[in-house]
Structure formats: structure tokens, C-alpha cells
Amino acid sequence: MTTSTNTTAARTGAAPPPAARTAGPARVLSDLAATASAEWVKLRSVRSTWWGTALALALTAAVAPLTAVATIGNMQRDLIASADVPASEMAVYAAVWGAQFAVIALALPVMTAEYSSRSIHPTLQAVPARVRLLAAKTVTLTAFVFVSGLVMGAVGTLAAHLVMLHPLIEGYGTLRPAQAAADVVRMSVYLALVAALTLGAGAALRSTAGTLTAVFALLFGLPVLLLLLGGGAGAHLADRLPLLAGVSFLDSVFVVGRTGDALSPGAGGMVLLCWTAASLVAGALVLTRRDA
């Protein structure tokens, strides 16, 4: 680099050429932050992101109070044992059986849409480091889903609590701030990990239909099949698949109940994290070894 080049860069405020930048962790983080910033612009500029978020919020706000009414109604008719019904656990139920589907739909096109539209070519020209590209997409998507999950959890908890104040069903519902905060945070982490798992599958399969089929088979189809087959081995394996491991992490008996082989919340979270990491590693391997 010449003296005139340095002078010009200093006057214009432009960054020095890449060759002049020192390699190391600081540079890696700087490059990742820049790529994540670009991915955030792409994520927020797509209408499907906001439609998916709005749908997830609407499902949480609707399913949580309806679940509270149905649960307490069953208790009043002695169909299930009476117990306290935490409002936050109704929001968790709504996340697993409602908002989760919208989150999968939101995460699905983050990678697959680039292949279907062929915009992956300019993306890779701008960011040749493919692992960094996938990492930036993961950071951006999971951060967005996590924050959205906090809002969903708060809205669902409040909606369920307000419904359970009705004179016909009051006395069953509870709202303890510390428990509610923990439930909402766990719910947000769960949704963020499901979004990252979907992203990794999309990077590996590159097809919207194929990714959707694979994610639904892994999350819902395979656990149901194993449970229908019966036997201790089937239940043991089902509890270690992403859905039921995630339910164990959420630590809510109202979602699907508990089996004898259910994992502890900590173990369930680690199993779900391992499934998510495996999906992202598979996506990174395909992304780096196959042409776009």
C-alpha cells in the first residue's frame, strides 16, 4: 500500500484494504458482525418474516387462553386431576402446538429461498466464506426468533391470566412472576433452536419442500411413530428426539405430560442443542462441499 493510498483512506474514512487488516479473533468477529448485519437487512426486508412473526404471535395469543379454559374445564368436570394452572405454561403450550409451526415457516426460506431464486450466487460472491455466511444467518435468525419469543410468551401469559380471572374458572390459575419469566425465556430458547435446526436442514437439503418434510418428520412424525410402536425402547428413543427433548427442557407437564423416560430440563436442553448443532454442521458441510 502506498502513502497516497493511506492518505486517501484516512481522508475518506474508508476501511483499509483487506491485506492491511490483522488476522485474528477480532477480525473474525468483525467479519461475522458485518455479514450478520447484511443478513439482518435481508431478513427484515422480506414480508414473510413479518407475516410469520405476526402469525406466531396471533397463535400464541389465541391458543394460550383457549388451552387455559379447556384445561380448567376438564378439572371442573373431574376429567383430570385438579392442580394449579400457571398462565405461563399455557403460553408454553401455545408455543409448542401453535407458534412453532409459524416459526418453522419463518425460518424455512432464510436459506432455501436463496436457492430457489438463485440469489445464492451473488450472496456467495459477496461472502465467499461459506461457513461464515451460515453462521451469520444463524446468529441473525436465532436472535430475531428469541426476541420475538419473549414478546409471544409475555402476550400469551397475559392473555391466559386475564381469561383465568373470569368468575367461572377463577381459583385455578396462577401467575408467579419468577416462574413466568423462566417459562418465557425457556420458550424463547426452544423456538430459537427450532429455527436454527430448520435453517441447518435448509442449507443441507436446499429445497423448500424437502426441508419442510424432513423437519416435520423429525419433530413430529418420528416421535409419534416410535410411541405408536409401543414398548420401552420406542418411548426411550422418542424422548431423545428434538420435540420431546425440547418439551423436557420447557419443564411443563401441560404440554404432553411426562413419561418415565423423560429427560431432566437440563438434559433435554442439551439434547435439543445437539440436534440443532448436528443440523447446522450438516448444512455447513453441504454448503462448503457442493457448488451452488
UniProtKB/TrEMBL annotation:
Keywords: Membrane, Transmembrane, Transmembrane helix. The chain crosses the membrane at residues 50-70, 91-111, 141-163, 184-205, 211-229, 266-287. Residues 1-23 are annotated as: Disordered. The keyword Transmembrane applies. Residues 7-23 have a biased composition (Low complexity). The keyword Transmembrane helix applies. This is ABC transporter permease. The lineage of its organism: Bacteria, Bacillati, Actinomycetota, Actinomycetes, Streptosporangiales.
